[in-house]
Amino acid sequence: MPRTLLDIFPNPLIAVGIGITAVMTVLSVNTLFCIWFERKVSAWIQLRMGPMEVGFHGTMQTVADMVKLLGKQLVTPKGIDKPLYHLAPIVVFAPVVAAASLMPFSESVAITNTNIGLVLVFMFGGFASIGIFMGGWGSNNKYALLGAMRSVAQNISYEIPLILSSLSVVLLVGAMGREFAVDGGVIQANGMNLAHITGVQAQRGVWFLLLQPLAFIIFFIAVLAETNRAPFDIPEAESELIAGFHTEYSGMRFGLFFFAEFSNMFIGAMVATILFLGGWDGPVLPGPAWFFLKTYFLVFCMMWIRWTYPRLRFDQLMTFAWGILVPLSILNLLITAFLVKVF
Amino acid sequence: MPTTLALELIDYLPITILVMMAATFAIANLVLTMIIGPSRTGRTKESTYESGMNPIGTARKRFNVRFYIIAMTFLLFDVEIVFLYPWAATFTNTSTGSENASIYLARVLFFMATTVIAYIYGYRKGVFKFD
User: Fold this and answer.
1) Looking at beta carbons, which residues of chain B come within 8 Å of A314?
2) Which domain holds residue B90?
3) Residue pair B111/B83 in contact by the 8 Å Cβ criterion
4) Has residue B69 been placed in a domain?
5) Which residue of B has its CA nearest to A119?
6) Fewest beta carbons less than 10 Å away: which of A147, A160, A196, B52?
7) Of B117, B108, B118, which Cα lies nearest the Cα of B81?
8) Domain holding B29: CATH number?
9) Is residue B33, in this structure, part of any structural domain at all?
10) Using one digit for the tens of pLDDT, what is the confidence trace for A166-195?
11) A298-333: per-residue pLDDT in tens?
């Protein structure tokens, strides 16, 4: 079991200080890297070069963009709902950091380790739709409101298959982790504990991707929709809605939304890695290396999908969620429950 | 593993502080750009973006009732999921093949059957048709 920062540093202030520094560093570097990587991937797929001017192969391009964004004016439009408009970027941004701190990225150290990690991750993920709607409603802009409503409808629709497909993994963890070895003792693994989920996969030597392929596909599609990525990027379909919910946000406020979006993508990939790809489990390389390799492979897949498939229509999107994904995930959960009980 | 409530709660203290520090970081960022960046105003600069035209009326109007239906259906399923969480976490604690496990599974099946019936009803009523 990973030791948490609170175990290592008895003083909670020092532990949290180190934790927030680590999480913010990883998230910032990830955002800077992902923006550059997204531009490069899109360029490769479209047989272009992508950013090449700033730094080696344009690696410093996003740093330059960030600095530029810091120096831009925060334009505040007329007729806004002041508390909602000003709070929205913070409400979107803050839970993302907390969700990232829950991830058990290595077998020896974690920032926090709670018994309900999986619930907490989905809870912090749910904050995004609240923040998005606050921003869209507060902006007094028709495009923003339309984008926000679409976004909330999409997020809550895809949250159901997302959680149902992860519950089948929870069942499996409980069944396969009856004799789960922890710190010399043997306990019953807790399916809600993210470290236990990875630990069971590592100890049994099988990734849940092999046992739950359907759940993985449903989960991955739902993550794409939850993070408003193409082909589910209707909330910010630029050809019809300008920029969606963040049309009226400029400068660093927009930067915070962007930061949260890329971090959400990263967190979605991390959760998928933990649930289905065995987290830190892997030969030769150390645990964290495997963890981030798998995560970035999934992030790459998300970008690959974005630049390959066209955008869905809104009715297709909702029908896909309610008509296909929800029944499939319920069925998958029931079958898993039966199999778990029989074997 | 912590056993008492007091020990469990201290697990969540870092997360709480992290959320607050992240919010502080975001606010500090915004304050910084307010200091660095320009602050020009004007009638056109303050107006909302509406494809270059002057904005007509307010944006907050009535919207399609379908969004309400989606939200209500979501609530139905969300409540179901809230009850499925503890079930999924504790179901496998009952030993395999025992009578307890069968009863436990049957109860959840009954519970899910009600949701499925509601889902089929909604489906036939055209709740999930969007056109």
Assistant:
1) 130
2) 5-124
3) yes
4) yes
5) B85
6) B52
7) B108
8) 1.20.58.1610
9) yes
10) 988 888 888 887 777 777 777 777 778 888
11) 999 998 998 888 888 888 888 888 888 988 998 998
